[in-house]
Design brief:
four-stranded parallel sheet; alpha/beta; about 15% strand; two-stranded antiparallel sheet; Adenylate kinase; Rossmann fold
C-alpha cells in the first residue's frame, strides 16, 4: 500500500511539473508541452522543435527558423568523456552549442524540488531538451550529452522532433572506464577538501 501511495505522490508531483513546464513554455511562445491522451503530458513543440524561436525582448517571435540545425548525440558509458568531448567541440566550432541534459535535468529537479532524476519522465526530458534548443534559435548545431537515456528516448525523439543528424559513440574497454571514473572521483574529492 505504501508503494502505491509513493507512486501516486510521484505522479502528482510530475503532473505539477508538466503543468509548470506548459505554463512556462506558453509564456515564451514555444508550446513544448501539451495535454496528451487520457490527461497525460504530451509534447507538441516536439513535432516541430524549432519552427519558431521563443519571443524576443520586444515580445515578437523572431521569424528565423532553426529546423535546419544539426543535432548530434554523444553516447557512451559513465566516464567515457561524453560531456568533455561535446564541450570541447562546441568550444572549437563557433556557433555550436553543447546541451548537457544531465545538468539541465539536475537544475530542473532542484528548482522544482523533485528529488531524483529517475522520477523525470521521457516526456519531460524531451520537453527540456526542446526548450534548451529554443533558447538558442540561431545556433549552427547542437551537441547533446546525457540524452538519450534509453531506447524509448530515441523513439520518442524520432517521433516528436525527427531524426538526429548523427551520434558519436565513445567506446572504451571496461578497465579504462573504471580508471576514468576513479580519476574523476579523486579529482572531485581533492577539489572539495
Amino acid at each position: 500500500m505504501k508503494r502505491r501511495r509513493n507512486k501516486t505522490r510521484r505522479k502528482q508531483k510530475e503532473k505539477r511539473t508538466v503543468d509548470e513546464l506548459k505554463e512556462e513554455t506558453n509564456r515564451s511562445g514555444s508550446p513544448l508541452v501539451s495535454e496528451g491522451k487520457n490527461g497525460e503530458a504530451g509534447t507538441t513543440a516536439a513535432t516541430t522543435p524549432a519552427t519558431t524561436a521563443p519571443p524576443g525582448p520586444n515580445g515578437a517571435a523572431p521569424t528565423e527558423t532553426i529546423t535546419g540545425a544539426p543535432v548530434i548525440f554523444f553516447l557512451g558509458g559513465p566516464g567515457s568523456g561524453k560531456m568533455t568531448h561535446a564541450q570541447n567541440l562546441a568550444d572549437i566550432h563557433e556557433g555550436y552549442r553543447h546541451i548537457n541534459l544531465t545538468v539541465v535535468i539536475s537544475e530542473y529537479i532542484k528548482e522544482n524540488d523533485l528529488g531524483s532524476p529517475q522520477g523525470i519522465s521521457n516526456t519531460i526530458a524531451l520537453a527540456l531538451l526542446a526548450r534548451e534548443m529554443h533558447l538558442t534559435p540561431r545556433c549552427k548545431g547542437y551537441l547533446v550529452s546525457g540524452y538519450p537515456r534509453h531506447m524509448e528516448d530515441v523513439h520518442n525523439y524520432n517521433d516528436k522532433l525527427g531524426r538526429p543528424t548523427g551520434a558519436v559513440l565513445l567506446e572504451w574497454d571496461r578497465g579504462t572506464l573504471i580508471k576514468n571514473i576513479e580519476v574523476v572521483g579523486w579529482f572531485v574529492w581533492l577539489h572539495n577538501t
